[in-house]
Amino acid sequence: MRTFSNETARRILANEIKVEALLQQYPEYQEEVLQELGVIKNNTESNIVHAIIDRYTASAKLATSKIRKSGLNEATVNVFLPKIIKARFAIYLLEQLNVAVSAKSPATSVRFNLWDGTILQKLLFRKGFDRKPVSLGLFKFWWRLISHKEILMPLVNKKGIYCFYSKALIKELSTLLGDKKCLEIAAGDGTLTRFLQQKNIDCHATDDYSWEHYITYPQSVEKADAKAALQKYSPEAVLCSWPVPGNPYEKHVFRTPSVDLYIMLGTSEAAVTGDFAAYTNADKFSMERSERLSALLLPPSDENAVYIFRRKTQG
Questions:
Q1: Domain containing 277: what range?
Q2: Domain total for the chain?
């Protein structure tokens, strides 16, 4: 049995320790909670979720009462404090893993089962919808265990997320870009630029903010349309991830004299991403679909495509 100091008990009772910190400090209780919540994997009725929340809430209230009445008696604390920690874990997981509870509307009760949500949240996000570079090895291992893969992208599309970037992809892009002055256009929330900056790449994220109804733009993403940004920064390299199909801005990349490298991350389908008419007319650039880089975009798909455009040498 784990033992707790009075100070630890006091801080937990006062809710002074964030759940994220508790998860790190007491991983054994997290595993117990996940096992206890396993019923949700095969039963997503809202009343089941409600019953679980009610049970944990009642358990935490009883444990809190027992501890306080005991005057933080060591034996009482050691028996009942884990019940409070586990209750906080359970409710936190249900909230964070997109499990929405509604006793009146079973159809909206659960968007991901607990197991899918737990795996995807840990693999793909730091918190909320804040993406992180994804370990390709871990992704390949866990992805096969996801029951409802088809839910992921429709869910995150609502937040302006159309792909995830593996660590291996970021490393390869960093090598390609090297010490070039780089610009990302139509950058959305700036995730790709942020990852590249962490690799010491000189990259600047810009977007015209036309998708404010979907995306929360951070201050790190400069409000500027592609043409204006290209004129302002005269970049040597340009990136664009999931450009709108038939968009009006990629053509300006090929018209910018300073650009000698353009990388488009998206799909091979003209109806889904990219201005393929502009690609065809970019006679001063070579065009290559990198199968290696395409395979590093996540989730995996035969349609994933990373196109590399290089300015042709004159001779």
A1: 164-311
A2: 2
